[in-house]
Amino acid sequence: MKYRTIEFEDETLKLLDQRKLPGKIEYYEAENYEQVITAISEMVVRGAPAIGATGAYGVYLAALEFKELSSSELLAQVESAVKEINEARPTAVNLSWATEKMLKILRSSRYKDRKSLLRILEKEANNIAQQDIEANKELASYGVKVIPQNSNVLTHCNTGALATVDYGTALGVIREAEKKNKNIHVYATETRPRLQGAKLTAFELVEENISATLIADSTAGFLMKENKVDVVIVGADRIAANGDTANKIGTYMLSELARIHNIPFYIAAPRSTIDYKIQMGSAIAIEERGAEEIKMIGDEKIAPDKIDVYNPAFDVTPAENITGIITEVGVVDPPFSAGLMEIRDK
Ligand code: MRU
To answer: Is residue 235 in contact with ligand 1, taking CB distance under 6 Å?
Structure first.
């Protein structure tokens, strides 16, 4: 993508403000970890891998903020900052995966002189960001094989360069299919309530000149019935050890529709999205977001003030509805418990 989603320079984290897209290209600047938490919870930056990298820089900024304290006090303060960062959005495991990686380095290097310690932490955050780009490109090279020539591909939410440090997961596979001249057409769901499909995926598809059509979420079943979808590919926020997958609300519904219509349904995610500590999807914490996301579209109120709202940001697709999980080390086929374990330390 021509814009950087996440950039770190001069002790400042610059995030392409996704709340303003596609209308405005503006960067949000975070100079401390509290501003990083705001950026994650208010969805300036979103998408599991992108918030992972953002969280890593948040840990570095916390260490910078507390650098004058003793080693044990510094560690205690950063640990408490990590707890707050992780709580900013609880479902995507990439966030705690990245912040825990940073904490591990801090614990083992905390007695080093401050300058070296900070340098090591900044380097680790940069590595996490860089490795995400590489993982996505690898993942795309495997994923492209599941996209048939001349096919219609349906995707949900935004899993592109905006949801990662660059390139993307499911949308990265789509990018790769376009590069490989697979002659695809993409159906992008608008993704209510926050409209990541309409605002972000459509933005990336237009930027990349990929043939695409935006649909209302409720159009997906009709399209499938009309034989206009050959394959569904989506991202993930947390994959349990048995393959059950939490992703943007509406993914489960799409997986059921795909199953009924005999359409292959793929998840694309780096291994940082697999949570081996969670055995099955029912144990995944689902973030609930505010009522205004449902009651408003932009600045316009579309529902009465007094109506109750239920707004889970994610749902869980059962492993049996998933055809394959595309990762940076290959496509995992069912049964996923064995397959995911095999790629753990590959
Ligand atoms: O609420 P969001 O926009 O952060 O949700 C994003 C998704 O559900 C994505 O599919 C997932 O994070 C994978 S992004 C590569």
So the answer is: yes
Number of domains in the chain: 2
Alpha carbon of 47 to ligand 1 centroid (Å): 4
* Residue 42 counted as domain residue: yes
**Ligand 1 lined by 238 (C-beta under 6 Å):** no
What residue's CA is closest to ligand 1, atom 10? 235
Give backbone dihedrals phi and psi of 267, rounded to 5 degrees, phi first: -105, 135
For residue 274, tell me if it sits in a domain. yes
Any bridge partners for residue 6, and if so which?
A: 15
- Tell me the whole-structure pTM to 2 decimals: 0.97
Range of the domain at 86: 6-138
Q: How do residues 121-171 score in pLDDT, each as one tens digit?
A: 999 999 999 999 999 999 999 999 999 999 999 999 999 999 999 999 999
Q: Does 22 sit behind a cis peptide bond, omega within 30 degrees of 0 on the bond before it? A: yes
Beta bridge partners of 188: 155, 214
Q: Among 88, 105, 138, identify where a domain stops.
A: 138
* pLDDT single digits (tens) 237-273: 999 999 999 999 999 999 999 999 999 999 999 999 9
Nearest residue (CA) to ligand 1, atom 15:
159
Q: Which residues pair with 212 in a beta bridge?
A: 186
